[in-house]
Amino acid sequence: MPLNSQDYRIGAGTKLDLRKRPTGARPSHRTDRQYRDMLNAHIKELSAQQQMLYACSRYALLVIFQAMDAAGKDGAIAHVMSGINPQGCRVTSFKHPSAEELKHDFLWRTMRELPERGQIGIFNRSYYEEVLIVRVHPRILQAEGLPDELTHGHRIWRDRFRSIVDAERHLVRNGTRIVKFFLHLSKDEQRKRFLKRIETPDKNWKFSAADIAERQYWKSYMKAYEKCLSATSTAHAPWYVVPADDKLNARLIVSHILLETLEGLQLGFPRSSAARRRELRSLRKQLEK
Question: DSSP assignment of 1-19, as one string?
């Protein structure tokens, strides 16, 4: 089944209902061999595009991954970006904010990690946590020490959505392209993956009692994601809801969308000017002596 990025893209102004979005999809591959061939082809082309991105140094690419626990963010990043030159790509994971970070505005700690032009930056979780987990657990907002008049009712979320959209628009105006993925996992599939982490000794470290506790807030998280994605998917920084129950298919969807995004920049290696070619001929003569 051919991949079509528009099947997963959230249009600007769309009111999202995640119950109507599948967590599973018809695979674009029939066999494991076909999956490997398709992913390797994507990786090879992504590597070529990344080299041109680095060489021309006109654009940066920011890729954001958000998801519930065990949705496959780490695996998607590891497999899809496996062919990228490490010099041109950086992955940043955001955990609980430090005391210093809590004393700044909610975008501060992530803005410091933005990719420079010529680079790909990947955020494993991001500033979107501030309108997701913070919304589900209001006590986290209280710890941020904001003035009381800024945190009453729904104003805080409306204002943060606006800040995010404005910040992303600013980045795009300055050469950063933004792609955002929500890996859409079913609650039952998460349960199966948690059980596997318990049964597999090498994966025990990935699991804790806190993971079970968070499952109690599943409906609250889905509502928070619906409001977040609806308010912040724009033409310049779209969200893609990727069915994540099938890890292999999810990786193919992600790699396809990233490749399509980079190809849309119409990158190329910088062309040499006449003066530069004369300089190179002179340098060649020196080397040949």
Answer: ----GGGTEEPTT----GG
- DSSP string spanning 86-108? GGGEEEEE--SPPHHHHTS-TTH
pLDDT in tens, 237-277: 999 999 999 999 999 999 999 999 999 999 999 887 888 88
Nearest to 77 by CA among 62, 66, 91: 91
Question: What is the rounded CA–CA span in Å between residue 196 and residue 175?
Answer: 42
Query: Which tokens is 160 given?
Result: 């943060």
Q: What angle do CA 240, 17, 139 make, to 5 degrees?
A: 90
Instruction: Name the nearest CA neighbour of 197 among 183, 213, 209.
Output: 209
CA 205 to CA 32: how far, in whole Å? 28
Give the number of residues written for the chain. Answer: 289
What is the residue whose two structure tokens read 């076909």? 34
Helix (H, G, I), strand (E, B) or coil at 251: helix
Question: How far is residue 215's CA from residue 217's CA, in Å, rounded to a whole number?
Answer: 5
Which residues make Cβ contacts (< 8 Å) with residue 144, sequence separation at least 6? 102, 106, 134
What are the φ/ψ torsions at residue 269 (nearest 5 degrees)?
-70, 145
Q: What's this model's pTM, rounded to 2 decimal places?
A: 0.93
The confidence score (pLDDT) of residue 257 equals 97
> What contacts 288, CB < 8 A, 6 or more positions away?
none
DSSP 147: -
Is 42 within 8 Å of 34 (Cβ atoms)? no
